[in-house]
Amino acid sequence: MNLHAVSVVYHKELTEWVRDRRTLISTVVVPLLLFPVIILGFSYLAVTLVGKAEKEIPKIMIIGGEDSPQIVGALQKIDTLKIVPYAGDWKNQISEKEIRAAVDIPPGFQGSLEKNEEKTVTIYFYEGEIKSSFGAEHIEKSLKDYRDQVVKDRLAAKSIATTVLTPFAIKQQNVAPPEKVSGATIGGFIGYLVILLCMTGAMYPAIDLTAGEKERGTMETILSSPVSRTDLVLGKFLLVLSAALATAALSVLSMGISFAAMRYFNPVGQSGRGETAALILQLGPKPVLLIFAMALPLAVFFAAALMTIALFAKTYKEAQSYLTPMTFLVVIPAVASLLPGVELTPKLALVPILSTSLVCKEIIAGTYHWNSIGLIFASTCVYAAVALLLAVKMFQREDVLFRS
Amino acid sequence: MIETRGLVKLFKDKKRGEIRAVDNVSFTCSPGQIYGLLGANGAGKTTTLRMLATILEPSDGTAMVCGHDVVEQPQKVRAHVGFLSTATALYPRLTSQEMVEYFGRLNGLREADLNKRVAEIFERLDMNSFRDRRCDKLSTGMKQKTSIARTLVHDPPVMIFDEPTLGLDIMTARTIIEFIRECRQRGKTVIFSTHVMSEVEKLCDVIGIIHNGKLLAEGPLAELRRKHSENDLEEIFVKVVGPLYANAEA
């Protein structure tokens, strides 16, 4: 191996790579711009829509209640509800979004209360429609307040303290460190993302530097130069590897910044995404570096395997049709690691992709089983070395290089 | 100096079985000489030249290029050869200068020598006006000049041209023909394949007629004319290849 020749090939490939618009889009623009736009844009939209729905004073209708003026009066006093007059087509009005919900007070409700008989008040709403759900929630809260007041009045009438209802309090207290809690829920997702991005980041340059070179007619040009085929493969392979790692690193960085920005602008957080921001900010360099160290042999494996397969193709399109199904082969084990109950065992530690995904989940959760980490790193290194050796062998084969 | 000794190249084809693309080809080409390999499409010209450039490995036999064996020392052979064909394209996203420099570095030139050499070639081939232009933005003529500069950057003693004028317009083809002549003047060993008779008549010192992978006739043009009692090269070619061609068609 001639390191100078490898470095010359690598620098040339790097120069061409950064000048390729498609590369810039897939490696830089997509991770750096698309993630923030999607995450922040989606979050802004969700917050705006939910906020608007929450602020709306829902129109509701009372069905019945003519013989129960106290509960009707209690509902009418509430500022956050707008009571509209009863109409027979109330169900239709809920469906047509003219009113948000309706509350059915059964006949003789007030009399039953006085006699300590239980009656059921029904709230009608349109499930899946957020404003209708908020309307129903408002009604339920008002009714619960009214019920609590009735209970208090009854206890007071019998000179019994309200504490009789709560003889003791119950409280849950978490003892796991915050990163473990977050790690259990979203840790696997980060490992999965790094693995998938390593693969997608390697795919385009792997095709461009093999089948693309054949299609453009530059393969024969480079083969006529004194560079050895091993040095040529290594130079190309290093570029594909760089692209894979750069895509993964930029994506994780961009995602971290996006979540952090979202958390900053929306500190209360919606749908738990603020938790992810907190996690990425809390991670610190050790787990992040360890995840990338674990992803490194896998990225080597992807880069070499994708180059080997793409080299068989005569054209860019043919290579794409070979490599697209490969995405599923990567996604399936990576997703399997996210399933509840799938945990790292010595056997699973030998399954490529799945093992890395599982160990990343553990690292983020703050668990460092160094034996497993070492076994997975070593086994993935073996797979990577085999794939790289295969890529070098493939570049020696005339029937592959000059397939017609 | 090129010396081939019983070169053979076999290809395996699923439908046609084993194909003898080059069959026991032996010839010699000396410095300051242009050897023209003349043959129809599929005759075995490209495969022969690819073996000389060590892009393909011979199935049997061998060749010596500047004293180096194409089978044993392929890298050393490539360091002494400049290979140009219509299939040797340029990297679209490199500039003309970067393309030439890349091959200079792969040939082990030091930066100071490389800069001097590139400046000299660009001046000689009148390429300075487009040296910083990307190869995908070059005209056909500019591309050919860049390809020539690429083959010359390490000043190889042996030049191999595989149908270098195929598909080119007259003016660009003339540039190539002039360049090949210049190589001979500079004492390089030149081997050149074509199926264009006029190019062979204009350029070649020795002609080899190849068909179905076999070298059927060889010698200077005057000798071939005398031997076959024909003045026109096309007629000589038909006399040599014709009977075999007819048999193959039948």
**Class from secondary-structure proportions of chain A:** mainly alpha
User: Sheet bearing the most strands of chain B, described?
Assistant: 6 strands, mixed
- How many extended strands of chain B? 11
Instruction: Identify the CATH class of the largest domain in chain B.
Output: Alpha Beta
Descriptive tags:
heterodimer, A: 404 residues, mainly alpha, abc type-2 transporter like fold, 2 domains, four-stranded mixed sheet, 4 strands, elongated, B: 250 residues, 9 helices
Summarize the structure.
The complex is a heterodimer of chains A (404) and B (250). Chain A is mainly α.
Plain-language structure description:
- The complex is a heterodimer of chains A (404) and B (250).
- Chain A contains 16 helices and four strands.
- Chain A has helices at residues 3-18, 21-55, 69-77, 90-95, 109-114, 130-157, 178-208, 211-216, 219-223, 229-265, 273-283, 285-312, 316-336, 354-364, 370-394, 398-401; strands spanning 59-64, 82-84, 101-105, 122-125.
- In chain A, strands 2-1-3-4 form a four-stranded mixed β-sheet.
- Residues 268-274 of chain A have low confidence and may be disordered.
- Chain B has 250 residues and is α/β, with parallel strands linked by helices.
- Chain B folds into two domains: 2-80 and 158-249, Rossmann fold (3-Layer(aba) Sandwich); 87-155, no CATH class.
- Helices cover 40% and strands 26% of the residues of chain B.
- Chain B has a six-stranded mixed β-sheet, sandwiched between helices. In chain B, strands 1, 2, 3, 5 and 6 form a five-stranded antiparallel β-sheet that branches.
- In chain B, helix 3 (96-106) crosses helix 4.
- The longest helix of chain B has 17 residues, at 233-249.
- The mean pLDDT of chain B is 90.
- At the A-B interface, helix 1 and helix 9 of A face helix 2, strand 7 and helix 3 of B.
